[in-house]
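Re: that chain you flagged

S.,

Sorry for the slow reply, it's been a week of failed gels. I finally had a moment to sit down with the sequence you sent. For the record, here it is as I used it:
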Amino acid sequence: MLLSFGATTKMDGCAAIYPSIAAIFVAQVYGIHLGIGDYLLIAFVSVIGSAATAGLTGAIVLLTLTLTLTLTLSTLGLPLEGVGLLLAIDPILDMMRTATNVAGQAVIPILVAAREKTLDLAAYNNPTDELQPASVPAQAESAAKVPVAA
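Prediction finished late last night. Pasting the structure tokens below so you have them in one place:
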């Protein structure tokens, strides 16, 4: 439940912030001045565009981000050639977006579980096999005594 909730609420990071920053970058590269109305339009289009995107990974994200970015640029009347500039560096940006999303998806459920007092601290503090029942080490010892043919 927590992971699906996190995936839904974290959609705006990739699907709204990236096209917004990218649109501002393209405007600066092409020397186009943006007014306060343009910034509000960027925010509105990016949030509406992010609501339509799914929390997917890989090539689908690249397609979705490209479409969202194209929507944002065309709404503002910015040159669509700016998408090509961004696609050249997108693999590096995608690695950073993925690392950020993975970290968020891992940390937030732990924080929520700890706050709700449902976190199994014994399992959390012992990520190795130290939590095995007492009978398992005995079985492992007996298996180790079996002679191995040379």
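What I noticed first: Residues 36 and 87 are 27 Å apart (CA to CA).

Talk soon,
D.
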